[in-house]
Amino acid sequence: MPLTAPDTIVAVTTAPGRGGVGVVRLSGPDARRIAGALIGDRALTPRTAHFARFRDGQGQLIDEGLVLWFPGPGSFTGEDVVELQGHGGPVILDTLVAACVHHGARPALAGEFSQRAFLNDKMDLTQAEAIADLIDAGTRESARAALGSLQGAFSREVNTLVEQLIQLRIYVEAAIDFPEEEIDFLSEGGVADDLTDLIAQAGTVLDSARQGRLIREGLTLVIAGKPNAGKSSLMNALAGHEAAIVTEVAGTTRDVLREAIQLDGLPLNLIDTAGLRESPDRVEQEGIRRAYDEIRKADRLLVVVDSQETDVDLTDLATLLPRSQQELDHLDLPVTRVLNKADLSGLPAGPRPSPADTFALSAATGEGLEALRDHLKTVAGYQGTGQSRFSARRRHITALEQALAALEKGRQQLYQHAAGELLAEDLRAAQQALEEITGAFTADDLLGRIFSSFCIGK
Ligand SMILES: Nc1nc2c(c(=O)[nH]1)N(C=O)[C@@H](CNc1ccc(C(=O)N[C@@H](CCC(=O)O)C(=O)O)cc1)CN2
Ligand SMILES: Nc1nc2c(ncn2[C@@H]2O[C@H](COP(=O)(O)OP(=O)(O)OP(=O)(O)O)[C@@H](O)[C@H]2O)c(=O)[nH]1
Ligand SMILES: [Mg+2]
C-alpha cells in the first residue's frame, strides 16, 4: 500500500504514432475533477461512453471524442479512472495530456497504472507481468500463455503450493513448541510424506514455468563457423526468405544479423555472424569480434561446416571455430553441428550417428532441414503448441528453484538430523521464495525493476 495518498496520473495509453483513435487515461483521486475541467461541468454515468468536447485551460477546443468514467474501486487500477478517447494523433493526445497536467495531474511513469492495480490488489505480480508479456508477445502461442498467466493460471499453482506449505509449517512449528513430543512427530512419517509431495508438486510447477519462459523468450541460436561454410544460406533457409547476403566470396557477412522466426510456436532468435578466421581486414576483424560476443550470449551454438572438407575434427570446437582457445574457455554452450552442402559432398542428408547432435543438410536445396528443425525443438525441450498454460520469466524460475532447494534442504534436516527447528526455517525460506513470485512478499527494489520495464501508459 502506498504510504502517502496517491496523486492523479495521466498518460497516453494507446501506442505512440498515428491511429484511428487514441486514449488518454487518468487515474487517481482527482481524475473525475480533471476530466470535468476539460469537458465542462456535466454528469457522467459510470462505465458509459459519453460524447464530449475536450478543451484546454484557456477554453480552446482540443478535440472531440468519448469520455468514460470508472469510479474506484471498480476500475483497472482500483482508483477513479477516466478515459478520454480522442483522435489518434500524437499532437492531439499530447495536448490532452498537457491539459490534464495543467489541471493538476502528473505524467505517469512507465508501468505506473499496472503498479497501482497491483498495489490496490486488483492483480498480483505475475498477472501484472503477464500484461507486459501479452503486449510483447511475438507469437500466438506466447500470447496464449501470457493470457493464461493474466487470468491467474500461474498464481493459482503457486498459491496452492503456498497453502500446503503453510499447513506443514503450522504442524512443524506446533511440534517445536512441545519439544518432548518433537521426536514422535518427526518419526510419525506424515510430515515427511507431505514434504515429499510438496517437492514433487513444486517440481511440476517448475517444469511448466520453464516451458512458459521458453515460449516467452524463445531460444537464441548463434550460427557460427568458417567463412563460406554456408551460415547465411542456412539462416535464410530457416527464415524462409533472403534475410542475409549470400555470395561465393569468403567474408561476405560482417555485421551480426538477427532474424526472429518460430518453429511451430517456439520462438527462435537466429543470429548469423561473420565467418571466423584470422583476417588482416579491420572491418572483418570487428565482425569476428562481434561474432564471439554473440556466441558468449547464445543459448545454443549452430556450428556450420562445409561437408566437402574432409579433414575436420567435429568433436573439437577449437578447430571448428578457429580462434585462440582462450576465447572458447569457459564456454559451456550446447552445440549442434551442421555439415552443409550435402548436395555437393554427396553425404546423405539427416542426423549423423556421431558425434551427437550432428546433421548433414543442404541449405541450398533444403534437404535435411526438417530433421534440424525437429532437433532444435527437442533440445529446447519444447512440448509443442497448446502445452504452455502460462508464461513465466527468469525471476519466477529462480524463485521456484530457490523454494525447491529450501524444501530439499528441509527434507535432509528431517531425515539426517531429525531437526524440527532447522526444517521449520527451511520451510519459511521456501514460502518466502514462492511469495516473491506473486508479490505477496516483495524484496526491496523488485517492484521498481518490474514496472519500469513496462511502457508508459500501461
Ligand atoms: N478502453 C480500455 N480498454 C482496455 C483496457 C482499458 O484500460 N481501457 N484495458 C487495460 O488494461 C484492458 C482491459 N482490462 C481491464 C481490466 C479491468 C477493468 C475494470 O474496470 N475492472 C473493474 C470492473 C470489472 C467488471 O466489471 O467485471 C474491477 O476490476 O473492479 C477494465 C479493463 C484492455 N482493454
Ligand atoms: N551447393 C551448395 N552451395 C551452398 C550451400 N550453402 C551455401 N552454398 C554456397 O556457398 C557460398 C557461401 O555461402 P554463404 O551462405 O554466403 O556462406 P557464409 O558461411 O555465410 O559465408 P561468410 O558470410 O563469408 O562467412 C555461396 O556461394 C552459397 O551459394 C549448399 O548447401 N549447397
Ligand atoms: Mg555469411
Automatic annotation (TrEMBL):
Keywords: Cytoplasm, GTP-binding, Hydrolase, Magnesium, Metal-binding, Nucleotide-binding, Potassium, tRNA processing
InterPro entries associated with the record: G_TrmE, GTP-bd, GTP-bd_TrmE_N, GTPase_MnmE, MnmE_dom2, MnmE_helical, P-loop_NTPase, Small_GTP-bd
Cited SUPFAM superfamilies: P-loop containing nucleoside triphosphate hydrolases (SSF52540), TrmE connector domain (SSF116878)
All residue ranges annotated as the TrmE-type G domain in the record: 218-381
Localization of this protein: Cytoplasm
Subunit comment: Homodimer. Heterotetramer of two MnmE and two MnmG subunits.
Gene: mnmE
Enzyme Commission numbers on file: 3.6.-.-
Top-level EC class: hydrolase
Annotated cofactor note: Binds 1 potassium ion per subunit.
Chain sites annotated for binding (6S)-5-formyl-5,6,7,8-tetrahydrofolate: 25, 83, 122, 458
Membrane-traversing stretches: none
Any Gene Ontology CC annotation: cytosol
Molecular function GO terms recorded: GTP binding; GTPase activity; metal ion binding
CDD domains xrefs: trmE (cd04164), TrmE_N (cd14858)
Binding site for Mg(2+): 232, 253
Name of the protein in its database record: tRNA modification GTPase MnmE
Pfam family name, one: TrmE_N
Residues noted as binding K(+) in the record, renumbered to the chain: 228, 247, 249, 252
Positions that bind GTP: 228-233, 247-253, 272-275, 340-343
Family: Belongs to the TRAFAC class TrmE-Era-EngA-EngB-Septin-like GTPase superfamily. TrmE GTPase family.
Cofactor(s) required, per the database record: K(+)
Primary location class: cytoplasm
Organism of derivation: Alloalcanivorax marinus
